[in-house]
């Protein structure tokens, strides 16, 4: 299966079209993105494989997707915890945080200890708008994720990767290759450098939007919000 990648500029334009023309709100898009992420976690790492899921969130929409995913994971029977070092100021993020606190989902402060006790990690730090360079505390965080001995699912792009050119040549993230990646709406160009299990999430596009951006989207099976998209031995779509 061959899917067209979408640039960060077009991904931002597509989101704008969804909200300005399609009638969607940011809350709705983030809810569906986070639901997709939670389903990918369940597919890769069911609760029987270990319930302690650490979700590391960045300050933007990618982090918001992680917050939503953590709420769904709690309802699935996992025991999620959140590391959220730079919290989004938007009122939406504050509401998502309140929802998690009302479920007694802990926000942790000691990342190395949390990684050692976790069974699975969700990297929801940076998405398609990331342009680098990394600024603290994120170089340290990325290095800790990179050396973690647990499976990692990255949301939309492995954090620290350039959306066009993939992993950095050196430094934090240069050897970061998560076990799984979920692309939201459509793959981003950096996916051609990725080797691992690859999922697509975002089952809400109309034909007119897909046609405008020349997206060749796969069929989602049944009631699933995700579909697994294989990559070949070179890690290309």
TrEMBL record:
- Residues bound to K(+): 62, 123, 159
Q: Which UniProt keywords apply?
A: Cytoplasm, Isomerase, Metal-binding, Mitochondrion, NAD, NADP, Nucleotide-binding, Potassium
Say what the protein does. Answer: Catalyzes the epimerization of the S- and R-forms of NAD(P)HX, a damaged form of NAD(P)H that is a result of enzymatic or heat-dependent hydration. This is a prerequisite for the S-specific NAD(P)H-hydrate dehydratase to allow the repair of both epimers of NAD(P)HX.
Protein name per its UniProtKB record: NAD(P)H-hydrate epimerase
Report the EC code(s) recorded for this entry: 5.1.99.6
Alphabetized GO MF terms:
metal ion binding; NAD(P)HX epimerase activity; nucleotide binding
Bound cofactor: record note:
Binds 1 potassium ion per subunit.
Where does it reside? Cytoplasm; Mitochondrion
For activity, the cofactor(s) needed are: K(+)
SUPFAM superfamilies recorded: YjeF N-terminal domain-like
Enzyme group, top EC level? isomerase
GO cellular component terms attached to this protein's record: mitochondrion
NCBIfam families reported for this sequence: yjeF_nterm (TIGR00197)
Q: Which residues form the YjeF N-terminal domain?
A: 11-217
Q: Which reaction does it catalyse?
A: (6R)-NADPHX = (6S)-NADPHX; (6R)-NADHX = (6S)-NADHX
Q: Where does (6S)-NADPHX bind?
A: 61-65, 127-133, 156
Q: Would you identify the family this protein belongs to, as annotated?
A: Belongs to the NnrE/AIBP family.
Instruction: Fetch the PROSITE patterns from UniProt.
Output: YJEF_N (PS51385)
């Amino acid at each position: 299966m061959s899917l067209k990648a979408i640039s960060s500029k077009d991904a931002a334009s597509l989101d704008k079209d969804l909200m300005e023309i399609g009638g969607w709100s940011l809350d709705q898009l983030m809810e569906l993105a986070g639901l997709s992420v939670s389903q990918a976690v369940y597919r890769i790492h069911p609760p029987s494989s270990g319930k302690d899921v650490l979700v590391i969130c960045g300050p933007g929409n990618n982090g918001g997707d992680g917050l939503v995913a953590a709420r769904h994971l709690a309802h699935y029977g996992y025991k999620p915890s959140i590391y959220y070092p730079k919290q989004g100021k938007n009122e939406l993020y504050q509401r998502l945080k309140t929802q998690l606190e009302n479920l007694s989902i802990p926000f942790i402060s000691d990342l190395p200890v949390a990684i050692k006790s976790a069974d699975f990690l969700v990297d929801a730090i940076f998405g398609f708008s990331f342009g680098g360079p990394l600024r603290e505390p994120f170089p340290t965080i990325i290095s800790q994720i990179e050396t973690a001995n647990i499976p990692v699912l990255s949301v939309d792009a492995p954090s620290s990767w350039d959306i066009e050119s993939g992993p950095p040549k050196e430094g934090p993230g240069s050897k970061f290759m998560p076990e799984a990646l979920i692309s939201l709406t459509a793959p981003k160009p950096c996916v051609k450098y990725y080797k691992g299990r690859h999922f697509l999430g975002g089952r809400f596009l109309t034909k007119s939007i897909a046609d405008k951006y020349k997206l060749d989207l796969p069929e989602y099976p049944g009631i699933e919000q995700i579909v697994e998209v294989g990559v070949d031995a070179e890690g290309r779509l």
